[in-house]
Each structure stands twice: as C-alpha cells, then as structure tokens.
Design brief:
Length: 487
C-alpha cells in the first residue's frame, strides 16, 4: 500500500477518519471548535483511562459505525528516531486496519510539538511504506491518503526537504539491493549510475580496458568468469567552494556471488543478489548528498563485478597483482569482496587523497555469527572516526560494534608464494582477518573505517522502519556522521 501525503488548507474540513496527537496532560480545550461535546467527552474519558500506558501507542475510538478517531498517544518526549518509529507504527496501523484515508488534525500541535518531531514522524511513515513489487503482475494499487491539516509555519520546511532527500537515497539503495541478478548485472548497474549526472554528481566509469591499464587486477580477477564487464565507478559531489579534502565512501558491488570456482552451496544462493549492498549504500548516500545540496566535498567509489564459475574464471591458487603493487594468492574464490575492495581502496586513497575513507561490504558470514542482525562490525585505524560512526549509529539506531585490529592477525594472512593470501586457513577471527587484509591497502595512513554489513543489509523480517527485505542500512548512519561532524 503506497503512501500519499497531502497538506490541506487549514480551513478545509476533516475527513471521516481523523487522527490527533495526545499527551496525558492534553486539555480538551485544545480541540475547541473541532469536535462536538459528545466526542470531547469520549476523549476526556479515554485520557482518564490511559494513565497506565507507559509507551507511545496508536489507539482508536469508534465515533460511529464507519468513523474512527485515531489517537497518537505520546507518553514521553521523543527524539528524531523515536518520532520516526511512531510514524512507522502509524503507517502499520493504517495498513493492518485497511484504512485508506486519515486526516491528522494539527489544532493542538503547539501543545505537543515538544514531544513529537513532526517532520520525522512523517519520515518514519514514508520509510515504512516502502515496497518492492516491480516484478509482480498483480500489484497492490491501494493508496493510503494521509492528509495534514496543519498550517505550514507549524513545521520546518528545511528539515522536511533534507528528510525527503534522505528518503530518496534510502529507497534508491533498497531498489538496487532488491533487483535480481539477471537485471542488475554490472553492465546495467554502471548505466544506472551514469544517470546520476542529472542531479549534479560527476560520474566517471572505468571499464575493463581502463582497469587493465590501471593495474586493478585484483578486482578484474573476480569478474573474469562472467560474460558481463567489471567496473570501477566514481561519483563526486562538490558542495564546498573550497578545495578541502573530500570524504570518501567505498562500496563492494558484487552483483551476484556464486562463489566462483569455490562454489557456494545451492541453498540460499539466491540471496547473493544482495552481495552488492555495500555499493548500493554508497550510491544512495551520494544521491542524498546531491539532492540536499550537502555542504561538503565527497566521493563515492564502487567496484562492480559478477563472481561466476566458467572456463575463464579465476582459480584457487592464482596469484594477482593489485593496483597497490602488492600480490595476492587467491586460495578461495569465494573470498572475493576483499579483492574488489583492495583495488578500490588504494585507488580512492591515491586519486582523491581524502580526509577519511569509510568502506562498506557484505564481507563475511562470520560477522553474522558474531553480531547477528543487531550490529554491523566496525573496524578502524582511527579512534576519532570510530567514535563518530558509533555515536551516529546510536542516534539513528543503525548500530555498529567495534572489533579489534592487531598486527598479530597479519600472520594469518601471510602467503608463502605472494605478499598475502585472501583467506585465513588456520581458522577463527574470519571478520577480523578480512578487515586486516583490507587495512594493508590503506597505503598512506588515511583515517579509515570498514563496516561489515552482512547481517544488516537484508532482513527476512520487518524492522522498526522497514517492511522486510532490503533495509537500506548505512545511508542514514553515514548521513548522520557527516551532518554532525563535517557540515
């Protein structure tokens, strides 16, 4: 059920299903002239009987056989995330009860605005309403019309515009992750990124031929078994007049991961269409920056490949020379994401000389064993950047947990035949050794953080702000990181 929000003239009458914000200290005089005496008495009675409710709730009063008054009960002061969460609950209520139109009456908004961030409330409802039904022959064409009877000067248009840009970025990320592998292969993905030029991003596409000249053999090795091309795509946003160092975001874009010659088990392999989620986060984030005219310089870099078995596929035991000049023995072709990122990280550091680099990848199954679907794994060479990411995650509830890096883990990745190998054959610390591998490709000690989002990018179940499937995890987190510390 899609959501359509419309702001009404304050003189226009309400609809048959209305909604109001209430707190336990709300006064019935707040609704003078809106409801008749009979309804006012019902509201008073409801407030008296709601003293035991200790959490924000969406409740309803039946005013007539076909008319409801939906009450958004605010028990405590709410920050932006909690307001978003209430908005999501409100959308769920309308969907569950098959209500096709509700008018929010803002007559008492002044008395409750300290307990609800209204722009975030609507943002939460919009996030929750996302659906990916592009390939269904019978689509759910129902529309939930949410009317807002609120004077424009009662809400912050600047905040609303920023949240709309963020919504576009998150939903674009979800769209990309949700696409099947036969549609969103590297060739198609690169074409879609090229279209982002229209919103002000400078997009540069490096194809197989250009990557060969650059010496990005680690990335190219992953994709050589596919009939599709391999790409490195950069997206630049220059929102500052000064030539300050850009903030860099790098994403793993394995559009489908069979494991290559080190073939994965067939069960659940269909989920490997979301092995490009790290890149999708970077793309959605950059789109958000451009749409909201972020006052930063930023660059997004994504490596796009398809990891397939075939006559030309990379073999276990192959040795490749990375863009950095370091050689890698590929002992397992299913540890491919780190090979893509190896070249992408060094390329980003060398070409753009950024103030920091944050990379995102659905990199290891081990991180799901460690942290489940509650936290992304955070690895970093910089305490300040780590704390900034952690704090941003707590605010938007896209949580991270920092895990250690240590030179002793490097021993597990050393190779007898090359500078390093791409897996740890001894066993254990799978996520840490993968991050330790990536750290070797940060050549100039640039502040760097790696987010392993394997447990966060896709969910079989609905979350607070998503309806299941692609979560868009990471866009809100990194947008908050930038907003709080770099704008």
């Amino acid at each position: 059920m899609s959501l359509k929000i419309k702001y009404l003239n304050n003189k226009k009458k309400s609809s048959k299903n209305n909604a109001i914000f209430l707190t336990k200290d709300s006064k019935i005089s707040d609704f003078k002239g809106i409801f008749d005496i009979k309804i006012n008495q019902k509201i008073i009675s409801f407030l008296k009987n709601s003293t035991k409710i200790k959490d924000n709730k969406i409740l309803s009063l039946n005013l007539d056989f076909d008319q409801k008054l939906i009450i958004i009960l605010l028990v405590k002061k709410n920050d932006f995330f909690q307001s978003e969460k209430i908005g999501a609950k409100f959308y769920d209520y309308s969907k569950t009860n098959e209500v096709d139109e509700i008018t929010i009456l803002g007559s008492n908004f002044s008395s409750v605005r300290d307990k609800i961030k209204f722009e975030s409330f609507l943002h939460g409802a919009e996030l929750k309403s996302y659906e990916f039904n592009l390939y269904k022959s019978k689509k759910n064409n129902k529309i939930f019309n949410l009317n807002i009877l609120l004077q424009k000067n009662k809400y912050n248009q600047k905040t609303k515009n920023k949240l709309n840009a963020l919504l576009d970025g998150v939903n674009f990320t979800k769209d990309l992750v949700s696409e099947p592998g036969n549609i969103l292969h590297p060739d198609e993905y690169a074409k879609r990124l090229s279209k982002l030029k229209k919103i002000g991003l400078k997009v540069t596409i490096y194809d197989d031929e250009k990557l060969k000249k650059l010496g990005c053999n680690a990335l190219l090795g992953v994709g050589q078994g596919s009939i599709r091309g391999s790409y490195l795509v950069t997206m630049e946003w220059n929102g500052k007049k000064s030539k300050s160092k850009p903030l860099a975001f790098v994403g793993k874009g394995v559009c489908f991961d069979t494991g290559g010659i080190s073939l994965k088990p067939a069960r659940f392999m269909e989920d490997m269409t979301y092995d490009m989620a790290g890149s999708a986060v970077v793309v959605g984030l950059m789109k958000n920056f451009a749409l909201r005219k972020a006052k930063i310089n930023a660059v997004g870099v994504v490596g796009l490949v398809e990891n397939m078995p075939g006559g030309n596929a990379q073999r276990p035991g192959d040795i490749v020379k990375s863009y950095s000049g370091k050689t890698i023995e590929v002992l397992n072709t299913d540890a491919e994401g780190r090979l893509v990122l190896a070249d992408a990280l060094t390329f980003t550091e060398k070409k753009f000389k950024p103030g920091f680099i944050v990379d995102l990848a659905t990199l290891t199954g081990a991180i799901i064993v460690s942290l489940g679907s509650e936290y992304a794994g955070l690895f970093s060479n910089d305490d300040k950047l780590s704390k900034q990411i952690y704090d941003a995650g707590e605010k938007v509830k896209e949580k991270v947990w920092r895990l250690p890096l240590h030179k002793n883990f490097d021993k597990l990745m050393n190779s007898k035949n090359a500078d390093m190998q791409n897996i740890n054959y001894v066993g254990g610390a799978g996520s840490i050794t993968a991050a330790q591998f990536l750290q070797r490709f940060i050549i100039n000690k640039t502040p760097w953080a790696h987010l392993d989002i394997a447990g966060m990018a896709f969910s079989k179940y609905a979350g607070a702000l998503n309806s299941g499937g692609a979560t868009g995890y990471g866009v809100r987190l990194l947008n908050k990181l930038v907003e709080d510390n770099y704008e």
